[in-house]
Specification:
Elements lengths: L6 H12 L16 H13 L4 H22 L6 H27 L15
Helix pairs in contact: 1-2, 1-3, 1-4, 2-3, 3-4
Length: 121
């Protein structure tokens, strides 16, 4: 007997997190267009009611990507010498946390991003 969410729920929970990578499909405007939010939002809206685990992980992914989109705007107020390193750090942090969350969700563990803001509950 397996513990935790069923395999299909784990797969969709992982998809909630990985779908944020759509922002890279439309570089350089992916984040500006909200593609990092659109992917998790669509997965959550389509599969969230079917599986409680997907509902939880979808909200978590959407909340985090909303915050990352807002934080991603901040470097644009700086001169390029500061902007570029900030964007690199922002992107690497986002990627690292997306992959950690995806692995955890794939293993059936609910992941919590280290963010203080949760707009969706």
């Amino acid at each position: 007997m397996t513990e935790g969410p069923p395999k299909q729920a784990r797969t969709w929970g992982m998809a909630c997190h990985l779908s944020a990578l759509l922002m890279f499909a439309t570089v350089p405007l992916g984040t500006v267009l909200g593609m990092n939010i659109a992917g998790p939002l669509l997965v959550w809206l389509i599969r969230g009611k079917q599986f409680p685990f997907v509902d939880d992980q979808g909200k978590e992914a959407v909340n985090f990507q909303i915050l990352m989109a807002l934080v991603g705007i901040v470097p644009f107020i700086f001169v390029p010498a500061i902007r570029i390193p900030l964007q690199i750090v922002w992107t690497l942090l986002n990627l690292a946390l997306i992959f950690v969350a995806s692995v955890k969700a794939s293993n059936g563990q609910a992941y919590r991003y280290p963010v203080p803001i949760r707009l969706l509950r």
